[in-house]
């Protein structure tokens, strides 16, 4: 039983005529996101590096979000999650999202603790 894959991306906003053209479309999308990440990493805009949100620079948040978007889209398209049942898709997609959010919370909380210890403690700040 051959299964015909959907030749569309972005929930049907872009439709392609063949698998080859779809692969090129996905490649261009992922390349644009990567180019934005690289451009932001090289230029480091003052507006994004000066402001912080939840103890981390906005630029770092943008990197985390764009990386999650790429990971989600790679799994969605190249691992064919869009063709699976919705319960399996949710189990695969939402579990890592919550785990990554929990990991970010733990890292921020521990980093703040270490910073406070070095700033107010008896250990000399030497790095």
How does this structure look, described?
This protein folds into two domains: 82 residues; 44 residues. The protein is 68% helix and 6% strand. It is built from four helices and four strands; from the N terminus they run ββααββαα. It has a two-stranded antiparallel ribbon. A two-stranded antiparallel sheet has the order 3-4.
Q: Rg to the nearest angstrom?
A: 20 Å
Output the structural class: mainly alpha
- DSSP helix fraction: 55-70%
For the biggest β-sheet, the strand order reads 1-2
Instruction: Encode the helix/strand succession as letters.
Output: EEHHEEHH
Q: Would you report the number of β strands?
A: 4
Show unreliable segments: none
General shape: elongated
Percent of residues in beta strands? 5-15%
* Span between termini: 61 Å
Helix count from the secondary structure assignment: 4
Mean pLDDT across the residues is: 80
* Overall tally of structural domains: 2
- Largest β-sheet summary: 2 strands, antiparallel
How does the SSE layout of this entry go?
Layout: E1 8-9, E2 14-15, H1 19-43, H2 46-50, E3 52-53, E4 56-57, H3 58-78, H4 86-120
Antiparallel strand pairs: 1-2, 3-4
């Amino acid at each position: 039983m051959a299964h015909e894959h959907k030749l569309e991306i972005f929930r049907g906003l872009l439709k392609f005529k063949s698998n080859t053209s779809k692969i090129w479309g996905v490649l261009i999308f992922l390349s644009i996101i990567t180019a934005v990440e690289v451009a932001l990493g090289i230029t480091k805009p003052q507006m994004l590096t000066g402001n912080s949100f939840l103890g981390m620079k906005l630029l770092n948040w943008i990197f985390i979000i764009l990386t999650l978007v790429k990971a989600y889209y790679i799994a969605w398209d190249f691992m064919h999650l869009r063709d699976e049942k919705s319960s399996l898709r949710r189990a695969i997609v939402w579990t890592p999202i919550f785990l990554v959010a929990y990991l970010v919370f733990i890292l921020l909380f521990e980093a703040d603790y270490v910073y406070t210890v070095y700033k107010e403690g008896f250990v000399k700040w030497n790095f």
